[in-house]
Amino acid sequence: MSHWIDCRAPVFFDTDCFACFLWTSSLLTLHKLIPGRLFLPEEVISELEQRKRTSRKVQFALSDLKKFIETGRAKVIEIPVTSPKREEYLRLVRGTFNGVCLGSGESAAMVHARFDHGIVASNNHRDVSAYCDRYEIPIIDTSAIMIAAVDRRVLSLDEACSLWSRMLREGRWLPTDNFMEVWKGFAPSGIEVAASDECPLGRDENDRRQ
Q1: Chain centroid to CA 132: how far?
Q2: Is pLDDT of 51 > 90?
Q3: Mean pLDDT across the chain, nearest whole number?
Q4: Parallel, antiparallel, or unpaired for β 2-3 and 11-13?
Q5: Using 50, 70 and 90 to split pLDDT, how confident is the model at 191?
Q6: 199 secondary structure, DSSP code
Q7: For labeling, which of 10, 33, 194, 201 is most exposed (least CB within 10 Å)?
C-alpha cells in the first residue's frame, strides 16, 4: 500500500473540491501538499469563471487562480477534440455511461484520471463513484486532503479547523461542521490507495482503456 501523497500520480480536481481551497484563499496548501501534481481540467476553469464577478472577493479569488496557474503551481489540461478522451467525456456528460448526465468539470477530471493514470479529487462521491469504481480510479476529497495536510504538517490542527470553518462559510458542502470530528476518525487505511510509484492502480494501460 502506498499513501496517495507519496505516489507520483497526477491529481485531477473537479470544480467543487478545488473551490473549497480557491474561495478560502488557501491554494498554497494544495501546492505544498502535492507540488507538481495539481491538474485542473479546462472545464473546471470555465465553471469557476462562470461565477458572478460582481463581488470583489470573487474577482480577487479568480486573480489568485490566474497567478497560481501562471507560476506553474497548477497545470491546466485540455481534452483534444479528436481523441478517445473526448469520446469518453461526451459519454459522461450526455448520460450514456449510466443514464445520468454528469457535470463537465467532474466528467473531465474522471476522464483525465482514467487515461493518465491519475487520482480524482472530488467531494461528489455520489456522481463519481460509479465510474471510478468501474475503472478502479482512486478518489480523494476535501476531508482526505485536509487530513493529509495536518498529518504532513502543512497545516497545524488549529489552522485546519479554521480553514474548514471558512469553507463552510463560503457555502462549501462538507460532511461535518467541525474538522475535529474528521480528524478524530482519521485512520491511515482511510487515505491509502493500492499504488505503485508510477501508477496508483498498478494496472496495464490497455486494461484501463477497456
Answers
A1: 13
A2: no
A3: 87
A4: unpaired
A5: very low
A6: -
A7: 194
DSSP state of 170: T
pLDDT at 74 over 80: yes
**Number of other residues whose CB lies within 10 A of the CB of residue 21:** 24
DSSP assignment of 59-115 equals HHHHHHHHHHHHTTSSEEE---SSSHHHHHHHHHHTTTTTS-PPPHHHHHHHHHHHH
Unique residue bearing C-alpha cell 481551497? 21
For every residue of 35-74, which 3-state class applies, written as one string? CCCEEEEHHHHHHHHCCCCCCHHHHHHHHHHHHHHHCCCC
pLDDT average, residue stretch 140-169: 96
DSSP letter, residue 4: T
Phi, psi of 177 (to 5 degrees): -85, -5
CATH code of domain 2-208 = 3.40.50.1010
Is 113:7 a contact under the CB 8 Å cutoff?
Answer: no
Q: Burial letters for 46-78: b for 16+ Cβ neighbours within 10 Å, e otherwise?
A: ebbeebeeeeeebeebeebbeebbeeebbeebe
Q: Are strands 119-121 and 139-140 parallel, antiparallel or unpaired?
A: parallel
- CB within 8 A of 193, min separation 6: which ones? 1, 2, 4, 7, 119, 138, 200
CA distance 36 to 97: 31
| 111, 94 contact by CB (below 8 A) | no
